[in-house]
Amino acid sequence: MNAAFAALTARAFIPRRALALMGLAAAALLALPVFAQGTGSVVTTPQVRAELVAHAPEGIVPGKPLWLGLRIQHAPHWHTYWKNPGDSGLPTTLTWTLPTGLAAGDIEWPTPRKLPVGPLLNYGYEDDLLLAVPVQVAAAPAEGTAEIRLAAEWLVCKDVCIPESGEFVLQLPVQGSTAGHGALFDAARGQLPRPADGAQARASFEGEALVVRVSGLPAALQGRAIEFLPETPGLIANAAPQQNRWEGADWIARIALDPQRADAPTAVPAVLSVAGDRAGWRVDAQVTGAWPAVAASPAPAPEMSPINAPATGTDPGAAPLSLPLALLFALVGGMLLNLMPCVFPVLSLKVLSFTAAGQGPRERVAGGVAYTVGVVASFVALAAVLLALRAGGEQLGWGFQLQNPYVVAALAALFALIAMNLSGAFEFGSVLPSSWASARARHPRVDDLLTGVLAVAVAAPCTAPFMGASLGLAVTLPTVQALLVFAVLGLGMALPYLLASAWPALAQRLPRPGPWMAHFKTLMAFPMWATVVWLVWVLGQQVGIDGVAALLGSLVALAFVAWALGSPTLGRQGRWGFGAVAAACLAATLAWAWPSLNPPPQSLASGTATASEAGWGAWSPERVAQAQGEGRTVFVDFTAAWCVTCQFNKRTVLTEASVVDAFESHNVVRLRADWTRRDPAITAELTRLGRSGVPVYALYPPGGGAPRLLSEILSVDEVRQAVASSKVAASR
Amino acid sequence: MPRIFSPVRRLTLAAGVAAIGLAAPSVWAQATVGQSAPDFAVTDTQGRKVALSDFKGKHVVLEWVNPGCPFVVKHYGSGNMQATQKGAVDKGVVWLTVNSTARGHGDYRSPADMAAWMQSQKAVATATLTDTDGRMGRAYGARTTPHMYVIDPAGKLVYAGAIDSKPTANPADIATAVNHVNVALSEALAGKPVSTAQTRAYGCTIKYADPA
Fold it and tell me: Which residues of A touch B33 (CB under 8 A)?
């Protein structure tokens, strides 16, 4: 089951496409970073391959043709912009440093495509683009080679935008021929808008519309669908459908003006984009009449009518999972929870109960049912508290109970008591009033129930695979449905034991009752002690070394009380005598310890908890956004000291040498979001990621955009592959 | 009307008509400098209802935002946006930051998350508005993040456009750029007409929801 589980997580969280893109990404990342200065003619980013190319078939000689150009090959669905980028975007800019005697002209922009984005529209290029620039050679450079330098900036977008830049160097022979890219320049020339010589274009105004009339266009164009793309940005409503028609040999278009236009030019240079013709035609529309004053539009003023945006806070329809799927995930997640490192210590309690003597099949099933009821009821109760607190405005998530140091201390005390009991230091029967003890004997199922409660209190804060998405959904659902998800989660966690208790063959396989049971019971004390160590460490993360001392002191006093009241070897007098002293000790210790368990101010704790490790920084949303803006990938470890799975992943994967290498070689910013204590900002980010608990491992792509979530149980390969493919895969 | 359509063109046109037509042309890009700014009634990140009419008699600045956008990061990471906000709010101006990103887009942030982000940025906006269905953004013709608007106490739009004069993603350009919002506000607060009332906004495309 473990192997199958590992295979499941490994496969489930690495999309096949990401794997396929990995090689490409690795190649891309080995090349120059986005903002680095190149020493060659090629700059590669995950979005584009940009190359400085030249065409000088007869060398660099005055009067002979010399073309330079930036070739941009876009990754699928990414685009860069035309000189008029439309409603958003920025045109690509080229800044040349050329030998004296050479002067670069303007970019010869190929006819762009319309790129609609929702209600907006951009003009730009996808696929393979060459921005060619003619160069005037006034005097040939003297040396054997001419050094061409180019600094280029481009904004590349898909549904997110990344500003990129590159510096390019090319050595051209002055005498020899440079013609390797001749075909490329020829192809680019074929995509330039042709000057419509002999055509006359005039623009006038009708209300808030620009009316363009073009006469004298080539006869072959007549009757064909044409669109008017102004080279000047910000004049027309780009996304509005253009009304146009042919009137004999004249083409007439009525185009809505941009109400927020900033210019009122006397001429509008434009490209007429013709259906089925890659190149199109270029015209210069002379404006007759005055631009309508933007402030005095004849159009009816927008009324002050409320837009009545429905102010609904929740929209379950947009939830990432459907409810039935969430329930299924919850069931599977609950079962997998049993395999998480954090649940392990508590399982020994359950295993112990299986071996209890004198159980018939009926008692065993009853025990299983009681345990299940305990688990489910605890899940529902915890969830109800969580939802109630969230409804009250608290920024909490799953596992919140362990964010409170007092709860951690109480659990540590409880586990210490259980461990002492299992070790034989005292008997509950001697401590509890006799009426309680007999009730316990008459209702052994109460033990099973409480075991279930304990398992949830300690173990539930960790999220298992499949659980994260369900929990994330649950906290956004209406209360009843949310509680249903949590109940199913508990059912999943208890299910293996319920089934085992109903499985007669298991009981037959157990050894006959005997002295081994006493040994086994003592043996089971050690996982309990380990749990106490863990809880003490969690408390140390939360409140520091003084709190640890306070807790350990309290545990000693508690042990004294337990021994005094529960030791089977003490007489009645000794019991009450020691008991009184022990109780006084405990009271004094608690009075001393209590204030030390208060969490220190936020800054102190987060400073010590998060910045301690080399290579890792403390998480904040702005650090993520800033690093993304710098074109870097960001890996965020959402973690908590009380989350054993988180610690397990940290020790086995995140500090593993090859993973650290992968982070460093790909220049990944590593941030740790420590949720050991309450932190509304982290809770908010988890909510945004559709999660409600930790661990969560998120890889944010450079430039912005949605992060990719990795598996809750990390593997070295998974992280390395994800990091290697992040820049390409993250763009979706 | 054109008689011949290529299939591609027809699709493009259909998409255009679908995008614009369904929203009713009057809803898109109606905000015009010199005219009444469209009123809006939306919810802020604290769940309070906010309407433009609440702020009659005050200058109002609208700022469109998307924390996932490099151009927004340029102005917040450098502190430029916060400084502009503070300068305005200190003079009694109402500053409303609006997020029109559609639910379902990778850049979407819940109101709580948006509030936390604004807090983490030490933003001093009067309120952060949630416009997930994009109606407010469409009514103003907001296209990019950031996209800035200034409304005078009479409810008239007096500035629409970019935050400043250098349309780049490079924070180093902020120092040498003209902050159009600061200029427009200081002129409007002095009772003068705004000299540069419209500019071309630059930034990331606003990720609007499909019109309902």
Answer: 260, 294-295
CB contacts < 8 Å between A and B, how many? Answer: 251
Same domain, yes or no: B128 and B40:
yes
Tell me which residue in A155, A224, A258 faces B4 most closely, judged by beta carbons. Answer: A224
Greatest mean pLDDT among A71-75, A539-543, B21-25 lies in: A71-75
Q: In the predicted model, what is the mean pLDDT of chain B?
A: 83
Write the ipTM. 0.70
pLDDT tens across A636-652, in order?
998 887 777 787 788 88
Across the interface, of B2, B138, B198, the residue whose CB is closest to A119 is B138
- Give B 60-79 residues with CB within 8 A of chain A: 67-74, 76-77
Q: Which domain holds residue A38?
A: 34-190
Q: Which 3 state secondary structure label does DSSP give A255?
A: strand
Statement to judge: residues A360 and A496 lie in one domain: yes
Token code pair at residue A435:
């009426």
Residues B21 and B101 grouped into a single domain: no
Residue A427 has pLDDT above 90, yes or no: no
Chain A nearest C-alpha distance from B63 (Å): 16
Q: Are residues A97 and A115 in the same domain?
A: yes
Task: Report the number of distinct structural domains present in chain A.
Answer: 4
Is B169's CB within 8 Å of A629's CB? yes
Whether residue A87 and residue B120 make contact (CB cut-off 8 A), yes or no, is no
Whether A218 shows a pLDDT value over 90: the answer reads no
Rounded (5°) CA angle B7-A88-A242: 40
Q: What dihedral angle (degrees, nearest 10) is formed by the CA atoms of A605, A608, A614, A618?
A: 20
CA dist A634 → A164, A179, A433, A610, A651 (Å) = 17, 43, 58, 16, 20
